[in-house]
Amino acid sequence: MSILLMLLAALVVTLGCAYIRLGVIVWALLTAVAMAVVGLLAGAPLAMGIVLLVFALLVLPFVIRPLRRSLFSKPLFGAFRKALPRLSDTERTALEAGTIGFEGELFSGKPDWKVLLSQPKPVLSAAEQAFLDGPVEELCGMLDEWQITHELADLPPQVWKFIKKNHFFGMIIPQQYGGLEFSALAHSAVLQKISSISAVTASTVAVPNSLGPAELLLQYGTEKQKNHYLPRLADGRDVPCFALTGPYAGSDATSIPDFGIVCKGEWQGETVLGMRLTFDKRYITLSPVATVVGLAFRMYDPDALLGDREDIGISLALLPHDTPGLDIGRRHLPLNVPFQNGPVRGHEVFVPLSFLIGGTAMAGHGWRMLVEVLSVGRGISLPSSTTGFVKMAAAATGAYARIRKQFGLAIGRFEGVEEALARIGGYTYVISALSQSMAAAVDRGEKPAVTSSIAKYHTTELGREVVRDAMDVHGGKGIILGPGNYLGRSWQGAPISITVEGANIMTRSLMIFGQGAIRCHPYVLKEMH
User: Fold this and answer.
1) pLDDT (tens digit per residue) in 251-295
2) According to the model, what pLDDT value does residue 66 have?
3) 315 phi and psi, to 5 degrees?
4) Which amino acids are annotated catalytic?
5) What are phi and psi for residue 512, nearest 5 degrees?
6) Which residue from 235, 230, 232 is spatially nearest to 214, judged by alpha carbons?
7) Any alpha helices (H) in 404-521, and if so which ranges?
8) How far is CA 521 from CA 105, 362, 379, in A?
9) 464 & 516 share domain
10) Lowest-pLDDT range of 173-182, 268-277, 400-409, 446-455
11) Can you tell me the distance from the alpha carbon of 210 to that of 481, in angstroms, rounded to the nearest whole number?
12) Over residues 93-103, mean pLDDT
C-alpha cells in the first residue's frame, strides 16, 4: 500500500510539473521529495528506499546530460544517420530555400504571439491606391465573366489591350524598366479586386507577376537580359509563360526528364556554343499567347565544353516563341475557367548559352532560383485571388439570404442557413487576414518558403468551403449557369487553386509538415547535413 501511495504522489507531481512546464531536473527533485515524504508518513522506510533507488536508476541517465548523450542520444543519432538517405544537392537547396519568419515560432511548440502582433500594419502608397481606384476599377467594369467563360473562352481584345497598356503585367517590375514597382500589398490588392469579378482575368494578371521571367530576371538575370526583356514585359509587348510542369514531373518538379546538351551549333548564321534542348511540358499558363517562354531543364556537358562537370544540374532559359523547333500545342480547357493554358514541346531545339537566365554563371542553380521565386508567388497570387472571390461570395450570399424568402421568412433566419453564413463570414475573415499577413511578410523582405505553403494550403482549402456553403445557400440559382450566375464558375474552378503551385494534398504533408518541421527545428537540418 505504501508503494502505491508513493507512485500516486509521483504521478500527481508529474502532472503538476507538466502543466506548469517545469524543467526535468526540478521535476526529478520534487518527485523524489514527494515520494520520500509519503514513504516516511506511511512508516515504510525500507519500501521508500527501494522506490527511490529504482527511481534514481531510471531517471538519472536522462537527467544527467553527459550520461544521457552517451547512453541514448549517440546511439539514436547513429541509427538515424544510417536510416536517413543522403541529401542530394537539389533536396538540400529546396530545404534551405527562403527565410524563416513567424512559422519558426509555430513549430517551436510555444509561439510568442507578441512577435506576430507587433508587426506594423502595411498600408498602400498614394500611387498604389490611385491605381486601384482608377485602372483596376475601370478594368473590372469591362469584365463580363459569362462572355469570357462561355462565349469567347478568352478575354476580349479590348481587355487584353487595356491590361497591357496600363502595365498590369509589370506590377513587380521597377519603374526604371517601365514597371509599376508596387509593393506586395498592392499586388495582392489588385488581384483581390480582379478575382472578385473574373477568375480568368485574375489568373492572366497573376502569372506574369509571380512565376514569370520578370522576377527571375530581376534577381538573377544579366544586365543585358534585364535591359532587353523587362521593359517589354512591363508594357505587354512580351507576354511570358514559364514551362516547369511535365507529364512525368508534377509536384516532384526536381525529377524533370527534360534536358539540354551543351554543344556547338549554328545560330543566325554563326557557329556558337549553345544547348540542344529536348522537353515536353504541359499545364503551362499563358503559353498559347506567350511571346517568350521560360524553360526549366536539366543541363549536361558530356564534352566538357564548360568545365569538368557532366551533370550541371537544373537550369533555366528564356526562349522567344518563334525559336525554330519550339512547339506551343493546343490549348487546355481547365474546368470551364478558360485562362490561357497549354503544352510546350521541343525536340533538339538549339539555342545559344546567352539564353540561360543569368548566363553560364547561373547554370545548374535553377532549382534554387525557382524555389525562392515560387515561395513569393505562391504566397501572393493564390491567397489574394482566393480572398477576392470569397469576399464576393460572402457579400452576395449574405444579401441573398436576406431577400430570398421561403415559408414567409427570409432564409437567412433559418438555423441551417445561419450556420453556413457564420462559416462563410469566419473563413472569409481568416483568409483575408492570412493573405494580408503574407503580403506584409514579403514587403518586409522575407522569402517565406514554409509560410507561403501554409498560406496557399489554408486559403484555398477554406475558400473551397466558402464557395460550397455559398452554393448550398443559393440552391438552384448557383447551379444554373448564365449571365446572372456569379457563383457557378467559382465552384467549378475551386479545384484549380487547390491543385496549382503544389497540390494541396502534397503541400500539407511534404512542405508544411515535412519541410516546415525540418527547416524550423533548431537542430534537425544541421544533423541531416
Assistant:
1) 777 789 999 999 999 998 899 999 999 999 999 999 999 999 999
2) 86
3) -135, 165
4) 501
5) -75, -55
6) 230
7) 415-443, 449-474, 476-479, 488-499, 504-506, 516-520
8) 10, 30, 22
9) yes
10) 446-455
11) 31
12) 77
Nine-digit cell string for 365: 542553380
> CA 385 to CA 139: how far, in whole Å?
16
Smallest CA-to-CA distance from 212 within 241, 184, 235 is with: 241
Domain assignment present for residue 282? The answer is: yes
More confident residue, 40 or 66: 66
What pLDDT is stored for residue 133 in this prediction?
97
Across residues 5-32, what is the average pLDDT? 83
pLDDT for residue 529 is more than 80: no
Handedness of CA 283, 285, 289, 293 (dihedral sign): negative
Grid coordinates of 159: 481587355
Q: How far apart are the first and last CA of the chain?
A: 52
In a domain, 88, yes or no: no
The residues near 200 (Cβ < 8 Å, ≥ 6 apart) are: 145, 148, 149, 155, 337, 338, 339
CA distance 442 to 165: 27
Q: What is the mean pLDDT of the chain?
A: 90
| One domain, residues 467 and 451 | yes
Give the whole-angstrom CA distance, residue 197 versus residue 90.
40
Neighbours of 165 (CB within 10 A): 11
Whether 219 and 245 map to the same domain: the answer is no
What integer is the mean pLDDT of 223-247? Answer: 95
DSSP characters for 7-54? HHHHHHHHHHHHHTT--HHHHHHHHHHHHHHHHHHTT-HHHHHHHHHH
Last residue of a domain, one of 214, 234, 254: 234
Q: For 198-223, how does the pLDDT look when each residue is reduced to its tens digit (9 = 90+)?
A: 999 999 999 999 877 899 999 999 99
Bridge-based pairing state of the strands 405-406 and 270-285: unpaired
φ/ψ of 472, rounded to 5, equals: -65, -40
342's CB contacts (< 8 A; 6+ apart) are: 282, 284, 287, 288, 328, 329, 330, 331, 332
Which residue range forms the structural domain that includes residue 271?
240-364
The Cα 285–Cα 138 span in angstroms is 25
Residue 22 pLDDT greater than 90, yes or no: no
Tell me which DSSP letter residue 355 carries: G
- Alpha helix ranges (H) inside 42-101: 45-63, 65-68, 74-83, 89-96
CATH number of 210's domain = 1.10.540.10
d(CA 72, CA 65): 10
Indicate the angle between helix axes 184-195 and 199-206, nearest 10 degrees: 150
DSSP 8-state assignment for residue 305:
S
- Same domain, yes or no: 347 and 392: no
Q: Who contacts 476 (Cβ-Cβ below 8 Å, separation ≥6)?
A: none
Name residue 448's amino acid: P
The three-class DSSP label of residue 295 is strand
Number of CB atoms found within 10 A of residue 30's CB: 16
Instruction: Give a yes or no: residue 191 inside a domain.
Output: yes
How many structural domains is the chain composed of? 4
Residue 90 predicted with pLDDT over 70: no
CB 249: neighbour CB atoms within 10 A? 17
